[in-house]
Each structure stands twice: as C-alpha cells, then as structure tokens.
Write a structure and sequence with these properties.
The protein has 12 helices and 11 strands. The chain is α/β, with parallel strands linked by helices. The protein has a 7-stranded parallel β-sheet, with helices on both faces. A two-stranded parallel ribbon has the order 7-9.
C-alpha cells in the first residue's frame, strides 16, 4: 500500500488512521466535509493531501480515490441520519472503489451483533441485531460483502482517544478535565471495553496490509475490560482526588434525551451496551495476524487528557 484514502478523516478513528499511515510512510488523502478542520489536523503533514468533500457525492469520492490502493471508511454520521443516508454512502464508497480498483477497509461498531447474553463475541457469533441501528449496520455489511470489492470489516467497541469527540468517553473526560464531577453513561460496576483509537488505527492499517484480511470480519477488542469505578480511580490518579464520576442510568439518559435533541433520543436504544458486558474476542486476529495493539488505560487516558488540555477538545 503506497497511498490510501481515509473517509471521515476529521473524526476520532479517521484522524488516528491518518496518523498511523503517515508513521509508516504511506501517503494519505484526508477526506471529510470540513476543509478547515482537516487543515487544522493535517496541514503540516507532508504525506497528507487534504480533500474536502461529501461522501454523499459519488464523483467527489471517485476523484479523491484516484491512485489509492485502499479506501478506509471511517465516516461517522449522526444517528438521526443513519436510515436515510448510510445505505447510499456505502454504495457511493463501493462505486468509488470499483472504478478506481481500490480495496476497502471498514471501521464498524458492535451493533450488528445484538445482545451478547454474557457471551464473548467472536467473528463466528451469529449476528442477531434487535435495534434499528444494529439492523442497519448488518444491512451495510451485507452490501459490502455482496459487492465485487475486496473488503474487510473491523468491529470495535466504544472509542476514546485524541480527537475522538463523538464518544461517551469524550463526554466524560471533557467534563472531568474542567470540573470535579462528570457523568459516566451506564452503571459503574459493569465491566466494559473502551478502545484507544491509536490502537484501533494500528490494527486497521495492519489488516489493510495483510492480503488474507479481505473478505472477512475482524473483532478488535480493547486492551482489557474496565468498570466505571476503576476508571474513576485512574482519573483520580491523573487529575486529583477531588475528581469523581456519577452514573447516568438508562432512565436518566432517557430524561436528558427529552431536552438534548433527536440524536440523543436515537441513542436510547443502544444503552443495552452500557448495561451489560459486551466483550469482543481478539483471538482470530492474534492467531492469524499477530499481537493486538494493547495500550493500558492508564497510558491511553494520559494521552487523551493531555490532548484535551492542549486545547484540542
């Protein structure tokens, strides 16, 4: 891979993928709607070409993908737009890949799996989504694998990391950096996974470089599980003993969503993930690709909080 297109480059995972590509000496085209934001993030990167555009515009995608070996689909749009826009965006990306001869690497969440029933989720776990958004994600997967484009899909748990602003963890950290108390979505006693975006990006680029990765799903778990109580202790160690987290229960989330807009209301059905152990197995990756990138929560939080303290929130 000499050159890659990253769609959604201004988001948390897209930003991390661009940084990972550059660290390996690979040229990258940073594609997103906000040219100004892209300039702030990548304006000083010699290997990065900035291309402002809309993934809803097939021609803009085709132009951005010229000369690229791989297209990374890391675009994230608001929940309220999923039903209307996600299918057409995926079709546009597949069209661009077909016409340019590029392979496709897709960043995905765990929604298509549905409830875990306290079982470790492997790539062989039957996908039985019970939510609207989970069913949409499964439809997108079927579109991709039914196409003629060589593609793989990587399933990730919730993100956190530099520039990963559209996440529950960012909501918590953004508050706790400036205040003594912050909300934590879900019970503080349940073990959950939060993946550092830089780890996710390393796994994505490694998969994209591996010829046998395509045509398959890959689960990319976090370093380990962590409870809200354990996270609180790490935050105290980093920012001081006065810092604390309070749990935002599902009823509280539902109440807040009445005033916070359509996208938060759309997020209500996904609260099962915060209220049960939904854990990915990384055994397939480690058996077939190699060791997973695993940054400790302590180091990952330090990196993320420092990024936020530097005014990049």
């Amino acid at each position: 891979m000499k050159k890659a297109l990253v769609i959604g480059a201004s988001g948390g995972m897209g930003y991390a993928i661009i940084k990972e590509l550059v660290s390996r000496g690979i040229e990258a085209v940073a594609f997103a709607r906000g040219g100004g934001k892209l300039g702030e993030l990548f304006g000083e990167e010699e290997l990065v070409t900035i291309q402002a555009g809309d993934a809803g515009n097939t021609q803009q995608l085709i132009e951005a993908a010229q000369g690229c070996d791989v297209i990374f689909h890391a675009l994230n749009i608001p929940y309220s737009q999923w039903k209307e826009k996600l299918p057409s965006i995926v079709k546009n990306i597949l069209k661009a890949a077909e016409l340019t001869g590029a392979k496709l690497a897709v960043v995905d969440n765990i929604y298509a799996y549905g409830k875990s029933n306290a079982k470790l989720l492997t790539e062989g776990t039957e996908k039985r989504p019970h939510t609207k958004k989970g069913k949409i994600r499964l439809e997108m997967e079927q579109l991709i694998f039914n196409s003629d484009v060589p593609a793989f899909i990587a399933h990730f748990p919730d993100f956190y990391g530099p520039n990963a602003t559209n996440t529950y963890m960012h909501y918590t950290l953004d508050q706790i950096v400036s205040k003594n108390k912050a909300g934590y979505v879900g019970p503080k006693t349940i073990a959950r996974e939060f993946l550092l975006t830089t780890d996710g990006a390393k796994a994505m680029v490694t998969l994209a470089l591996h010829p046998n990765a395509y045509g398959q799903n890959w689960n990319i778990p976090a370093n380990s599980t962590i409870t809200g109580n354990e996270l609180e202790l790490l935050i105290k160690n980093e920012l001081g003993e006065k810092k604390s987290l309070y749990s935002i229960s599902k009823p509280m989330f539902a109440f807040f969503s009445l005033f916070a807009g359509k996208d938060m209301r759309e997020g209500l059905e996904m609260q099962y993930i915060a209220n049960e152990e939904t854990i990915l197995s990384g055994s397939k990756y480690e058996n077939e690709i190699g060791p997973l990138p695993r940054t400790s929560y302590e180091d990952g939080l330090k990196e993320t909080i420092q990024y936020m303290k530097n005014g990049k929130r």
